[in-house]
C-alpha cells in the first residue's frame, strides 16, 4: 500500500466515524424532537378539550340549578353551555391519538346525552318535585359525564408522561451511541498512531540517521527497502546509489593501486632517487626514506611558491642536490612535480 494511501485511509476512517456519529446524533435528536412535538402537541390539545368540557359542565350545573329554582331566563345560558360542551367534545374527537380515546369519547357522549335528557325532564316537572328528582336522577349522570372527561384527561396526561419518559430514554440511548462512536474513534487512534509511527515516522528517523552517517563518511549503512511504498522506493534508490558508489570506489581504488605500482616501478628505474608529489604538495611516491622525502617536498614547495611560470629548478637540501622538474599533460598545467636527488653535495664537491 502506498504511504499516502495508508495515511488517507487511517485519517479517513477516523473522519468517517466522527461524521457518522454526528449524523446519527443529529438525525436521532431531530426525530426525537419531532416525536416529542407531535405527541405532546396532540395530547395537550386533547387535555385542553377535556378541561374545556369540565368548565362547560360546571357552567351547565350552575345554570340548570338556576332553572330548577324557576328562573326561565337561564334556559338560553344552559343551551349555550351545552353547545360549548359539544364543541369541546368534537375537538377531542377530531384529535384522537390513543386507541382508548375513541371508546372514552363515545361513553362521554352517551352519558352527556343521558344527563341532558334526564335533566330536561326533571326541569319540566312541577317545582316542588324538581330539586329532589334532579339530585336523585340527574346529578349522578352529571358526575358520570365529569368522570368520563377526567378519564379522557388522565389518559392523555399519562400518554404525555410516557412520551416524556420515552424521550428521555431515547436521548440517553442516542447520547450513549454517539459516545460509543466517539470512544471507538478515540480508541482507534492508538493503533492508527502506532501504525503511522512504525510505518512512517520510525522509517523517517531511520532515513535521517542513515543520511547523517553517509554524510559523515560511513558508506556501509543501508536502509530497509522491503516496503513497497514511497519510502521503500526512496530507500531502494538510495541503496542502489550507495552500492554503485562502492563499486566505482572499488574500481577507482584498483586503478589507483595499479597506477601507484606503475609509477613506483618507473621511479625505481630512474638512475637517481626521486620524490613525486602533487602541485598541492601531497606525496604521491618516493624512492627515499620518508623523512628525507618530506624535507625535499617542503623545500620544493618553497621553491615553487616564488615562481611566476613553473619550470625546472635546482637547489640543495638535506645534504642532497635536487633537480625539480614540473610534469605537464599535453598543453596543460603541471599535474605533478618530480624531484630528482643527486649524490650528497659534499660528495659532488669532492668529485
Concise overview:
The protein is α+β, with helices and mostly antiparallel strands and 351 residues long.
Your description of this structure?
- This protein has about 350 residues and is of the alpha+beta class.
- The protein is about 75% helix and about 10% strand.
- The chain has helices at about 5-70, 75-95, 100-125, 125-215, 230-270, 290-305, 345-350, and strands at about 275, 285, 315, 320-330, 335-345.
- The chain has a five-stranded antiparallel beta sheet.
- The two termini are about 85 Å apart.
- Residues about 345-350 have low confidence and may be disordered.
Write the SSE topology.
Blueprint (H helix, E strand, L loop, with lengths): L2 H66 L6 H19 L5 H26 L2 H89 L14 H40 L3 E5 L5 E4 L3 H16 L7 E5 L2 E9 L5 E11 H6 L1
Antiparallel strand pairs: 1-2, 1-5, 3-4, 4-5
Chain-averaged pLDDT: 77
Oligomer: single chain
Given the structure, what is the number of helices?
7
The portion of residues assigned to helices is over 70%
The N- to C-terminal Cα distance equals 86 Å
Largest sheet: 5 strands, antiparallel
Number of strands: 5
CA-based shape = rod-shaped
Q: Could you tell me the strand content as a percent range? A: 5-15%
- Given as residue ranges, the uncertain stretches (5+ residues, pLDDT < 50) are 345-351
Short key terms for the protein model shown above:
351 residues, alpha+beta, five-stranded antiparallel sheet, 7 helices, rod-shaped, disordered C terminus
Amino acid at each position: 500500500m502506498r504511504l499516502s494511501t495508508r495515511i488517507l485511509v487511517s485519517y479517513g476512517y477516523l473522519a468517517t466515524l466522527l461524521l457518522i456519529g454526528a449524523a446519527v446524533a443529529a438525525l436521532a435528536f431531530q426525530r426525537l424532537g419531532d416525536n416529542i412535538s407531535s405527541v405532546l402537541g396532540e395530547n395537550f390539545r386533547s387535555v385542553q378539550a377535556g378541561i374545556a368540557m369540565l368548565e362547560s359542565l360546571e357552567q351547565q350545573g350552575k345554570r340548570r340549578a338556576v332553572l330548577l329554582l324557576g328562573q326561565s331566563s337561564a334556559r338560553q345560558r344552559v343551551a349555550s353551555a351545552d353547545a360549548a360542551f359539544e364543541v369541546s367534545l368534537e375537538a377531542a374527537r377530531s384529535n384522537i391519538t390513543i386507541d382508548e380515546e375513541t371508546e372514552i369519547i363515545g361513553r362521554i357522549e352517551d352519558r352527556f346525552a343521558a344527563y341532558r335528557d334526564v335533566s330536561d325532564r326533571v326541569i319540566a316537572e312541577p317545582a316542588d318535585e324538581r330539586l329532589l328528582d334532579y339530585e336523585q336522577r340527574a346529578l349522578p349522570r352529571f358526575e358520570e359525564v365529569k368522570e368520563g372527561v377526567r378519564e379522557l384527561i388522565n389518559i392523555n396526561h399519562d400518554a404525555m408522561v410516557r412520551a416524556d419518559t420515552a424521550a428521555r430514554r431515547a436521548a440517553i440511548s442516542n447520547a450513549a451511541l454517539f459516545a460509543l462512536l466517539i470512544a471507538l474513534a478515540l480508541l482507534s487512534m492508538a493503533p492508527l498512531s502506532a501504525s503511522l509511527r512504525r510505518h512512517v515516522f520510525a522509517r523517517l528517523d531511520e532515513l535521517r540517521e542513515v543520511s547523517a552517517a553517509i554524510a559523515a563518511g560511513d558508506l556501509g549503512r543501508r536502509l530497509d527497502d522491503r516496503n513497497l511504498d514511497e519510502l521503500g522506493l526512496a530507500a531502494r534508490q538510495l541503496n542502489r546509489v550507495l552500492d554503485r558508489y562502492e563499486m566505482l570506489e572499488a574500481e577507482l581504488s584498483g586503478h589507483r593501486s595499479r597506477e601507484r605500482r606503475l609509477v613506483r616501478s618507473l621511479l625505481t628505474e630512474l638512475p637517481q632517487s626521486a620524490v613525486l608529489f602533487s602541485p598541492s604538495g601531497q606525496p604521491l611516491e618516493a624512492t627515499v626514506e620518508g623523512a628525507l622525502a618530506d624535507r625535499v617536498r617542503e623545500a620544493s614547495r618553497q621553491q615553487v611558491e616564488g615562481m611566476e611560470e613553473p619550470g625546472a629548478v635546482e637547489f640543495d637540501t638535506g645534504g642532497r642536490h635536487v633537480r625539480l622538474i614540473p610534469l605537464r599533460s599535453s598543453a596543460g598545467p603541471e599535474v605533478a612535480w618530480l624531484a630528482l636527488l643527486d649524490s650528497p653535495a659534499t660528495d659532488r664537491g669532492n668529485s
